[in-house]
Amino acid sequence: MRVSVIIVNWNGLGHLPECLDSLQEQTFGDFETIVVDNGSSDGSLAYLQQRKDVRLVPLQENVGFAAGNNAALPFARGEYLVTLNNDTKAQPDWLEKLVEVAGRHPEAGMVGCRILSYSEPERIDSLGMAICKDGMSRGNYRGRRFAELAIEPDVEILFPSACVALYRRAMIDEIGFFDGDFFAYCEDSDLGLRGRLAGWQAVLARDAVVYHKYSMTAGSLSPLKLYLVERNHFYAVVKNFPLLLLLTLPLYTLLRYLVQARVVLHGRGTGGEFMTGGSRNECVLALLRGMRDALLALPTLARKRAGVMRHKKISSRDMRRLLRRHSLTFHELLDAGNS
Question: Is 0.90 topped by the overall pTM?
Fold first, then answer.
């Protein structure tokens, strides 16, 4: 078996048929589909039990995206593990193109895709991920029109978005899969940074195309998502960033808060959109709770960091250079220039 496609579902009945049907149309046939159902209450489980094209892993409760993917690991037989969000639709040659790139690059433990907006298919959701100096990440070129860019095939990326990503099983066997403590969001940053620290490369399968509806489960830019992203990006940074960058984290976090406050107050860009998902007080409280819970987790994170560093194969200097090559400004992160 070459590929195990893993889909984590929680109350996604409205999205599953289109997602799974697009897999049935793939030109590449040597794959299995594993669906982990996180205790859905919307009829998803009954629907999945009727489908003969999936291996169902039913869970009793919602353990999140990270632990949900981990639950599929004992059942996955593929040389490549491909994570796929339930609110996606893949082009028929998506998997074929993805596997071709992975085969050309045995040094790559991770391969990203051309993830486009479902509602505006000419616009990009992600072409791999970029990262800020405080560890916040965002999809490369998000919102840009793909036709306006000149993207080379098999270009290096920092790491892929786990919305749609291929992970080489050999890398996962070496460093582990997702950290279940993240629940959801930024778990791909953590896994991607761990992979790069361990010496694995990451490339983009430019012509492997998937359309993504974006934040359909947690709600677009809701206080819950704000809390998880704020907490989890600290988790990823403490576990993986070079020590020199870790020491500058308080300064860059403060700078991001200042930029974030300005765009929220003006109702602009991504920062302004948080206000559509909750009141200003709810958003501020979610952000502060995220920081508080990250600080409370520092002893655990320190132990995890020690485990990560045991697999480290590149120097801290090379890691800093890698992060600079794929850097993102706070204004880019928050779309501060958009109205």
Answer: yes
What is the per-residue pLDDT across 192-246, written as a single tens digit (0 to 9) for each? 999 999 999 999 999 999 999 975 444 456 889 999 999 999 999 999 999 999 9
Pairing of strands 88-90, 80-84: unpaired
Cα–Cα dist 88/64, whole Å = 18
R_g over Cα of the chain: 19
Put residue 149 in one of left, alpha, beta given phi > 0 → left and psi -120 to 50 → alpha.
Answer: beta
Residue ranges of the chain that CATH labels 3.90.550.10 = 3-212
Give the model's confidence band at 337: pLDDT under 50 very low, under 70 low, under 90 confident, else very high: very low
How far is C-alpha 262 from the geometric centre of its chain's CA atoms?
26
The C-alpha atoms of residue 157 and residue 137 are separated, in whole angstroms, by: 13
CA 90 to chain centre: 17
Buried b (16+ CB within 10 A) or exposed e, 314-328: eeeeebeebbeebeb
Give the HSE-up count for residue 163: Cα atoms under 13 Å, Cβ half-sphere: 26
Q: How confident is the model at residue 281 (pLDDT cuts 50, 70, 90)?
A: confident
* CB atoms near residue 54 (< 10 Å): 18
Is there a contact between 159 and 110 (Cβ–Cβ < 8 Å)?
Answer: yes
Q: What residues have CB less than 8 Å from 76, skipping those under 6 apart?
A: 4, 6, 32, 34, 169
Class of CATH domain 3-212: alpha beta
Question: How far is the C-alpha of 162 from the C-alpha of 239, rounded, in Å?
Answer: 18
